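Anyone else keep sequences and structure tokens together like this?

Example one:
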Amino acid sequence: MISIAAFPRACVRPWRGPGAGGIFGAAADAVRALFAVAAAPAEGAAGRSEHALPERPLTATEAVHFRASMLPHLDAAYTLARYLTRDADAAQDIVQDAYLRAYRAFADFKGGSARAWLLAIVRNCHLTWRDHRRREMQRRAPDAVAAEEGGDAEDAIDLLVDGETPETILLRRSQADRVRGILELLPEPLREVLVLRELDELSYREIADVAGVPVGTVMSRLSRARRHFADLWERVAAGAEAVR
């Protein structure tokens, strides 16, 4: 049975952050520019946006530490946000919001995994975005919310039927696009743990901290996520063979 871990990293981590340009380049540049100013001495920070300031302003040393420990994880932050939202524009907004929140809270950061700490903030920003989106959808189209919340992994597999379905769409894509497409078919809890484990390479304990669930739940979800990813991949692969 195929596993997502069997694919080259380029197939499953398509979205690059700082310095890469493209879809995330503008957001990454904005984050880096903001905290380049934040790390400057007080006399050079007069132009800093007020809403970016924490309740207790960071010292110059703390600001430099923030940049050194948090900015290297821009790629991971965007990757998680992009897979959770399945919306490129929303993911950019979430990453910028997450970095502002992280900056405000950095004085309280007690050490440990900076990557896991930041990704927990990204996840919380995503939940805020999702709740707002659902309220908007509920106001405009109640049935759409019910449809969005009603699916699980088995439903995703059942979508692969004849006609213009996720399967036929995936068949027209490259292998990398198929991998990404299958990831996006998974329900959010399974997609989340798979991205955190296979793409962001967090430990089970770190994933548990990010997701706010027991380690046993992480392991169970990860097992289900891998199984359903494999099932979906094999069905798409079988379809590809059939049309040759």
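And example two:
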Amino acid sequence: MEFALLVLNDEYHKVELAGGYCDGNCSVCRKCTNNRNIVTLIREENAEFYQKYVLDHQTRTAELCKKVSEALSLDEGERTILVQSALLHDIGKLLIPFCILSKNGSLSSYERRIIQFHPLKGAEWLRERDFSEEIVTIIEAHHEKVDGSGYPYGLKGDEIPFLARVLAVCDTFEVMISERHYKPPKSINEALEELKKEAGRQFDKAVVITFTEMWYNEVKEEKKVVV
């Protein structure tokens, strides 16, 4: 399930909301292929970057959220909201200047601040189009940290919506194990150790415990030999 598609249109690609969301209201339904919502226009030479580092990343993060939602025994409504939030969580990056988003070297303090606006930009874009406030709030808070050092509001602990805390773990893990234009990927074990190291500081400790147990259980299942 994808929230967006890159659609070639002359020398530009359009990023369109084409699926993965439905609020049951036909006047604003995003599933209808005849009523797509254009997020932004992207130059041909930048299309691969956006596909790899934004759109595909969101899809992979949503798959992780789906798995951990089952491990957490979330109800069907919570699972749906979490997965939809994951599919949309970096939409604000489509509204950040490409020269900053794609920079290979270290970011200046100004550039870092611009990047940190992406949860707010995404939330604003979605609110203007009447997306569920539950989803918007999760997206707005997915870079908050439980110790209060995150952004955009510096929320602490339970001030951060629980599903945003779940998304933060899945999002960060997916980034760590993926190759990025500014870093090589970490191994699964390295990424899990980093999550455990930051449990109680950056991440919700209970979510990290469930997430790491989920991975270790998957490994055990894969190693079982059926005779």
